[in-house]
Specification:
There is one protein chain. Helix 6 packs across helix 13 and helix 7 packs across helix 9. This protein has 17 helices and no strands. The protein is an all-alpha fold. The radius of gyration is 26 Å and the shape is globular.
Length: 368
């Protein structure tokens, strides 16, 4: 097993390198880079997410005392006509675009190897600090949502498999179809309308992870306040996320229940509960439980963006979205690097989980 783990870790290096190369090349061809963003802001044409207040780059530009001129010089940057060429060169040096693309790429990788992600272009803060600042929100959403989804889906899927074709199976299937068809953000809006002061009840807060007086509360008060703020966003994500796992659990159990070893166990006089949880459970739950690491990563980094926006939760999803809109390259590449690395590590953990659940699985023998 140790040799297999080493091979997988070594394979992560070219995989991660390829992911970074692909994203770097795509970004180079994307219009509206950070220099164009600054030019638009200076000229007053920045709108939406491109309009920043107090950002470091815009502050440096304004503090430099450089103003637009009427030289009419040509520039490769959209909207730069009429600006002093020296001003454009200063912007390029500030953002590091005075170096060739390949040099910038390998310098970035060199820094990333020691987890030096640089400083955000527009937030005047290191990327590491930004990620650490937003991490509690995303971890809270991802962890509790994943745990609740598994806690609901596994028992429900087992019950549906045992009661396959019954009324219970039919009406729960209807609920699953509804949960699978309606996106999480639609449930989020409905929850706000009904329970967060939208039109009916004002039972839950609509903003942030904690209250303003959080530090003044007792330990139990802090715990209650924390879950009070998380109640609606987690409910929305759980309702939208339990359907697929429930069906996977049910199908896994149905497939195992029809196997010969189950018939043999029943013929020996074992109780249905002993057969179900002593024999079927381990085999049926193999794919479900082993997928927990990747499911958590998926919910953590991709499933909570709209939920964070709707409930005003400042997490990693919102950070990555704003970075993409504003062309904040250090944040974009750092999040891609971290997410890709975590994804590769979680895939390895998922494979190791298979062997923990069922020791008969031997990846080294399969590769040999």
């Amino acid at each position: 097993m140790l040799a297999y783990i080493i091979r997988r870790i070594l394979l992560m290096i070219p995989t991660l390198f390829g992911i970074m190369v692909l994203n770097f090349v795509v970004i180079q061809f994307a219009p509206g880079g950070p220099i164009e963003q600054i030019i638009a802001e200076i000229q007053g044409t920045a709108v939406g997410a491109t309009a920043r207040i107090g950002g470091s780059a815009s502050g440096d530009v304004a503090g430099g005392g450089t103003s637009a001129s009427s030289t009419g010089s040509e520039s490769t940057y959209r909207g730069a006509q009429g600006l002093d060429p020296q001003f454009i060169k200063e912007l390029e040096q500030q953002f590091g675009f005075d170096k060739p693309a390949h040099e910038r790429f390998f310098l970035m990788l060199k820094n990333y190897l020691v987890f030096d992600f640089g400083t955000s272009y527009f937030r005047d803060e290191t990327v590491v600090n930004l990620v650490l600042e937003k991490m509690p929100v995303s971890i809270s959403l991802g962890l509790w949502t994943t745990l609740l989804v598994y806690a609901i889906s596994i028992p429900l899927g087992i019950r549906k498999a045992v009661k396959d074709g019954s009324r219970f199976d039919l009406w729960t299937s209807s609920l699953i179809i509804i949960g699978n068809a309606i996106p999480s953000f639609m449930f989020a809006v409905a929850l706000i309308v009904f329970f967060a002061g939208g039109s009916y009840f004002d039972w839950f807060p609509l903003r942030g992870l904690t209250s303003e007086n959080f530090e003044e509360l007792s330990l139990l008060g802090k715990i209650g306040d924390y879950f009070w703020h998380l109640a609606l966003p987690i409910t929305a994500m759980v309702i939208g996320g339990f359907a697929a796992l429930t069906q996977l659990t049910k199908n896994s159990f149905l497939d195992q229940i029809s196997q010969q070893y189950v018939l043999t166990a029943r013929a020996k006089g074992l109780s249905e509960r002993r057969v179900l949880y002593g024999h079927v459970f381990r085999n049926a739950m193999l794919i479900v439980i082993a997928g927990f690491p990747s499911a958590f990563i998926g919910i953590l980094f991709t499933g909570s963006l709209l939920i964070e926006v709707i409930f005003s939760l400042d997490g990693l999803g919102l950070l990555g979205f704003e970075a993409a809109i504003n062309r904040d390259y250090p944040v974009i590449f750092a999040t891609v690097y971290v997410f890709a690395l975590l994804g590769l590590v979680m895939n390895l953990i998922g494979d190791l989980t298979y062997t923990l659940i069922d020791p008969r699985i031997d990846f080294e023998a399969r590769e040999a």
